[in-house]
Amino acid sequence: MAESAAPLARTHHIGMTVESVDAAAAFWGAFLGQSPRFRGLLDRPYLGRHVGYPGVAMDVAFFELPGGVWLELLDYKVAGKAALPEATANPGNVHVCLATDDIDSAWKKAVSLGARPIVPEGPIDVTHGPNTGARAAYLRIHDGITLELFQPPIRPSAEAMR
């Protein structure tokens, strides 16, 4: 017997812990063509309790991604932080995937802003599986975070198939 799903409504946000909110916000602001919707210091007592660092302060910037999901850039003001290995094969590594109708332009924009592509020649064609016909690219951005760009396959419309 299958268990029922949790009562979820939608994805609210994606949080990225960064070394410098200024540097990360510079990339995202230029890439998304917008300023952060909020930029500042968060330091209320509930926050430390919530994230497990009592008394923490965080330098933050919030951007609205396409589709209404929020991107939170977070710099925890605590001692003893260490960067994680950037390799996507490492357990615990997470990437952010943004869909586009023009992957070549999005890829060029990201690279012009300092993103390091995994495939230097550009996006690759997906040749097998449920996304056959799509195009995709992995790029390393600030703090070793992976940004995936994804252009869905072009599917013929019902009208075109008549």
Assembly category: single chain
* Fold-level CATH name of the largest domain: 2,3-Dihydroxybiphenyl 1,2-Dioxygenase, domain 1
**Top CATH class of the largest domain:** Alpha Beta
Please bin the fraction of helical residues.
Answer: 10-25%
Radius of gyration: 19 Å
Quick one: CATH superfamily of the largest domain?
Answer: 2,3-Dihydroxybiphenyl 1,2-Dioxygenase, domain 1
Unreliable spans are none
Structural class: alpha+beta
Shape: globular
Total beta strands: 9
Mean pLDDT: 93
What string, H for helix and E for strand, traces the elements in order?
EHEHEEEHEEEE
Structure, explained:
With 162 residues, the protein is an alpha+beta fold. It has 2 domains: 13-76, 2,3-Dihydroxybiphenyl 1,2-Dioxygenase, domain 1, CATH 3.10.180.10; 95-151, 2,3-Dihydroxybiphenyl 1,2-Dioxygenase, domain 1, CATH 3.10.180. The chain has 3 helices and 9 strands; from the N terminus they run βαβαβββαββββ. Strands 5, 6, 7, 8 and 9 form a 5-stranded mixed β-sheet that branches. It starts with 12 loop residues before the first strand and ends in an 11-residue tail after the last strand. The relative contact order is 0.17. The mean pLDDT is 93.
Blueprint (SSEs and pairs):
Layout: E1 13-17, H1 21-32, E2 38-42, H2 45-51, E3 58-64, E4 70-76, E5 95-99, H3 103-112, E6 116-117, E7 124-125, E8 135-140, E9 146-151
Parallel strand pairs: 1-4, 5-9
Antiparallel strand pairs: 2-3, 3-4, 6-8, 7-8, 8-9
